[in-house]
Amino acid sequence: MSSTTAAKRVLLLTNSEHGQANVFLAVSYALLTLEDEDVEVHFASFPAIRPFVSTTSEHAQRDKPGARPILFHSIGGIDIVSAWTRPEIVAQQAALNKRSSISLLNAIRRTLVLLQVTLPWTGPEFVQIMPSVAGITRSVQTDIIAVDPAFSPALTVLRHLKAHFIILSPNTIKDFAMPFQPNAEALWKYPCTGTNFPFLIPAHHLPSNTLLILLSLITSLFFDPRRRAVSQYLRTHYLANLPAIEFPLKRIPQHVLPCGPMLRPARPVAEADPELDAWLHRGGKTVYINLGTHVYFDDEGDGDMAAQMAGAVRVLLDRAREQGGKKGHGGAAFGRGEEVVRRILGEEVERDVVWVVDWVEAEPTAVLDSGTVACAVHHGGANSFLETVSAGVPQVVLPLWMDTFDFARRAEILEIGRWGNRLAGKLCESNELGSMLVDVVIGDRSPAYAQKARELAELCRSSGGGRAIAARHILAEIGHDIPEVGKGIPTSQLTGIVPQTNESPNGFLQRCRVGGSTSI
C-alpha cells in the first residue's frame, strides 16, 4: 500500500439479493487484495447484505494485511426481495413453476412475470430509494461506480447525475449480445426464454419459437405497466461469464467485457461445518443437491416434489448397487419435506448415506471446492451454474422458470452435465432425473463430463479468476471516457469460443481491446 498516492475510490451499488450481490462481494474482495493497488471500496446496498459485506471485508484484511475495510452505506426504502414477496408476484411465480404447455398465453404470462420480477417496485417505492442513492453518490465522491443492472432506481439516479459508471452483472453474454447477432438470429436461432426447446432448435419448432419471441417482445414493449422506469440501455457491461462457457454467438457487443465467474471468498467447509466436512471425506462419490432459497419442499403442498427427488436418488443408489456396490453418498438441502424423503430413503438416511438438512451452513462454493463432489444438482440460477463450473464439478440442472432454462442448455452444450427435467413439466420426475444422475455420476460418459468440467474450471480460474479480472478493469476505467455502444465484434476474430477452451479469459479481453471495443 502506497503512502504517497491517494487511494482509488470505488463505489459499488447493488441490490441486497444474493443472486445479484454476490458478484459485488467477490469484486470487493478482489479490489482490496490486488497486490499493487491501494483501493478504498464503498459498498452501498440495503441493510440485509451488511453482515456479508463485513465478512468479505474481514477476509480481505486477513489475506492482505493493511487492506482498507469496506465502507458500507445503507440505502433506504424497499429492497427487491421485499418487493418480490407481494402476494400477486408470489402467486404468479408459483403458477409459472407449475408450467404445463408451451403456448401463446403462457408466453405472455411468462413475460409479464419476468418484467414484474426485474422491476418490482411501485412508483412511490421507486422514488423513495432514489434520494438515498443520490446522497451516497454525491458524498462519496468516487473515482468510478459499478452498479447492478437490476437496481433500476440506482441506474436512474446515475443517469440523472451523469455519473461515470459501469455495469457489473452476474448475467451471461447472451443476455446482452442477442440484439447484435447477424441475420436476425435473435428472433429464431436461440430458444425463447422460459421454453424447453433444445439448442440447436429442430426445424419444425422454428416457427413456434419465432412466434413466442415476437410475442414476448411485443408484450414487453407495449403491455408492461412499469416500463416507464426503464429508458435507454446502459454503457459498459462487465459480465460474470466467458465465451467458453456460453452459447455459440457470432457477435459480442464491443461494450461487453466478459470476465469469467466472480466468486466471493468463503471459509473452507472444515471451518464452517466440521461435521459436514467429516461426512464429505468419508470416501465415495458425493451428489450435492441444493436448489437455492426459492424452492421449498413440504410434506403437504410440495410433498410430491420431495418424493420425486428422493425417488431419483433411489434410482441412482440402486443402479450403483447393481454395478457392484460402488461406494457413494449424497447430501441435500431440501428445506421442508424430510418426512417424505425418509419414507423413500429411510435406510440410507439412517446409515448417513443420504444427509438431509434444512440449511447448509457452509457456502455452496466451499462444498463444491471440497474435492469430494462428483455431481451438483441445482435450479439453474446464474450463480449456481457458474459456481459449479468454477469448481470443475459436473452438474444436473433443474430449471423452473425463465432464464434458468438457458443454463440447463449450457450444461449440455458444454458437455459438463445434463438437463434433468426437460420432459417432466415440473421440478423433477424421479425416473427422468434418476437416469440423468446415473449418466453423470456412474454412467459410461461420467469420466468425460468430469474431464470437461475440470478443463473449464482451469479456464475460469486463470489470471486470478473473474473477480480479479473485473477488479483490474474497473480500476482501469478511472480517468477514461465510457465507449459508445457499438455493433459488436465478429467472434470469428476471437478464440475461446465454444467448444475451444484453451484460451485464458484475459487473452479474450485483450483481443476485445485490440478490436477497439473499449478505452481501457
The number of distinct structural domains comes to 3
Query: Over the alpha carbons, how many angstroms does the gyration radius reach?
Result: 23 Å
**CATH-scheme architecture of the largest domain:** 3-Layer(aba) Sandwich
How much is the average pLDDT?
A: 78
Walkthrough of the structure:
- The protein is α/β, with parallel strands linked by helices.
- The chain has three domains: 8-81 and 118-182 and 232-263 and 464-514, Rossmann fold, CATH 3.40.50.2000; 82-111, no CATH class; 269-460, Glycogen Phosphorylase B (Rossmann fold), CATH 3.40.50.2000.
- 44% of the residues lie in helices and 12% in strands.
- It contains 20 helices and 15 strands.
- It has helices at 18-33, 50-63, 80-84, 87-97, 104-118, 123-140, 152-161, 173-177, 206-222, 269-272, 274-280, 303-322, 338-350, 364-368, 382-391, 404-413, 430-441, 446-461, 465-476, 505-514, and strands spanning 8-13, 39-45, 71-74, 144-147, 165-169, 237-239, 251-252, 256-258, 285-290, 328-333, 354-357, 373-378, 395-397, 417-419, 489-490.
- The chain has a seven-stranded parallel beta sheet with strand order 3-2-1-4-5-6-8, with helices on both faces. A six-stranded parallel beta sheet has the order 11-10-9-12-13-14, sandwiched between helices.
- β1 (8-13), α1 and β2 form a beta-alpha-beta unit.
- InterPro entries: EryCIII-like_C, Glycosyltransferase_28.
- It comes from Achaetomium macrosporum.
- GO terms for molecular function: glycosyltransferase activity.
